[in-house]
Amino acid sequence: MLQRIQSIYLLLAVLVSAVLPFVLNLWVSVDGYVVYAHDLLKYDSVTVSSIPVLFYASAFVSFITIFKYKNRQSQFVLGRVNILINLFILGLLVYHLQSLSGEVFASEKGIGAALPLIAIVLLVMANRAIKKDEDLVKSVDRLR
Predict the structure, then answer these.
(1) Which tens digits make up the pLDDT trace of 129-139?
(2) Most buried of 1, 11, 61, 106, CB within 10 angstroms?
(3) Residue 86 pLDDT greater than 90, yes or no
(4) CA–CA separation, 59 vs 73, rounded Å?
(5) What is the layout of strands, in order, in the sheet containing 34-35?
(6) pTM score, two decimals?
(7) Torsions phi, psi of 70, nearest 5?
(8) Whole-angstrom distance, CA of residue 24 vs CA of residue 75
């Protein structure tokens, strides 16, 4: 049953969480240095250096969720956990981007900071499709 629509949404969430943060920049510093997610591992701060790890954790949970199609309830719960992970990533990014001074450290914010929002939207759409499948199975069970 990998051909369901929620599998497509979850695969897109894997792509958004695993590939795009390392392709799209998070911000550009005043001296022209472009900061990607993998550059955050060099920071001494635990909160900042955990952002790329959380991106990979989100991608891993989305990938595992794709293959849990036989147990829709655990698939739904993993989707919610993944939404929480992405909300945490978004909170860390917003906190860090707001603590940066405008022209001292970062002159321009990148589009990569919006990737957790895109992942959250994809995960909500996947959870909606999983819920619809679960409701359909329950309605057929009532007819028997």
Answers:
(1) 999 988 888 88
(2) 61
(3) yes
(4) 19
(5) 34-35, 27-29, 106-109
(6) 0.88
(7) -80, -25
(8) 29
* Cα 5 to Cα 9: distance, rounded to the nearest angstrom: 6
pLDDT > 70? residue 1? no
Burial readout 61-95 (b: 16 or more C-beta within 10 A, e: otherwise): bbeebbebbeebeebbebbeebbebbebbbebbee
Q: Is the Cα torsion angle 100, 104, 107, 110 positive or negative in sign?
A: negative
The pLDDT of residue 55: 94
How many residues in total does the chain contain? Answer: 144
What pLDDT does residue 100 have? 66
Distance of alpha carbon 40 from its chain centroid, rounded? 17
Are residues 82 and 13 in contact, defined by beta-carbon separation less than 8 angstroms?
A: yes
Residues 6+ apart with CB under 8 A from 82: 13, 58, 61, 62, 65, 119, 123
CA distance 26 to 93: 9
**CB contact at 8 A, 37 and 22:** yes
